[in-house]
Amino acid sequence: MTRVVSPLRLGVNIDHVATVRNARGGALPDPVRAAQLACAAGADGITAHLREDRRHIRDTDMRRLREHLTVPLNFEMAATDEMVAIALEHLPHAACLVPERREERTTEGGLDVIGGGIELAHKVEKLAHAGIRVSLFVAPDEDQIARAADIGAAVVELHTGAWCDLLAEGRAAEAEEEFARLRRAAVQGAAFGLEIHAGHGLDYASAETIAALEPVRELNIGHFLIGEAIFVGLEAAVRHMRVAMARGRARLGASQAA
Ligand code: PXP
User: Fold this and answer.
1) What's the pLDDT score for residue 233?
2) Atom of ligand 1 nearest to the CA of 13
């Protein structure tokens, strides 16, 4: 008998369409058009990170995404007063709070939920009070996840970047250990009543692997898909990603049935 497995959503991060646009100035390529194409190809939601330095997504992109999208918008943001005010203005479906340092190339570590103290808790409360589903982007660390649940986050997004880096460097044993941490964190977070998402650095193969973790409900993927889009087009890349995710999820159904 096969057991029913919860669906796994795909959020497509369109930041790097804006990176290419900004390299030349002007309006093209348009991240909103990319978002619409990704949705037509099977994305369940769109993620965009308005960074403090506006290096890719800009304020006008957030406004246009909000106007044109019919799927949930996940607003990635630093836990600052400025970003909370912008989130409250646009009221996206979800806000994913991430650490942000100006000099980093991408979001390098998980949010320090414990170190964020009462100030972070207040920001989570403000966003949640406005009806925004709050997600905290965390390393697979038990204490951070426990604190995320304590301060009222609805979701934790597990940072898969370290695992993906180890895979890319061919450090198989360490990758295996990091994956075991992700698995434990997913189970633990779900036990706290948190919805579990995962993202950063995922490609077809790693997305397929992580899709087989039952508590994981959503993957957020950007850089790889936008890179693939150069070669095969965005719709094909998103479709291929959905197939990889479905393959991983099917493995889970089969192993539960055995
Ligand atoms: N999730 C979060 C919280 C992120 O910060 C990022 C990167 O912006 C992603 C997912 C997507 O990562 P990538 O672009 O490596 O797929």
Assistant:
1) 98
2) 11
Based on the residue annotation, tell me whether 159 is a catalytic residue of this protein: no
**Amino acid 94: pLDDT:** 98
CB of residue 137 inside a 6 A radius of ligand 1: yes
Q: Mark the ranges of the chain whose per-residue pLDDT is less than 70.
A: 1-3, 102-107, 253, 255-258
Residue 243, domain extent: 9-257
**Based on the structure, what is the number of domains in the chain?**
1
CB of 14 closer than 8 Å to CB of 226: yes
Residue 2 located in a structural domain: no
Q: Is 255 exposed, middle or buried, given 0-12, 13-18 or 19+ CB atoms closer than 10 A?
A: exposed
According to the model, what pLDDT value does residue 2 have?
Answer: 60
Amino acid at 64: R
Within a 10 A sphere around the Cβ of 90, how many other Cβ atoms? 17
Q: Is residue 92 part of a domain?
A: yes
In a domain, 237, yes or no: yes
**CA 143 – ligand 1 centroid, Å:** 22
Residue 243 lies in a domain: yes
Q: How many whole angstroms from 199 Cα to the centroid of ligand 1? A: 6
Using the mean position of ligand 1's atoms as its centre, give its distance from the Cα of residue 221 in Å: 6
186, 211 contact by CB (below 8 A): no
Phi then psi for residue 47, to 5 deg, are: -115, 140
123 and 83 Cβ atoms separated by less than 8 Å: no
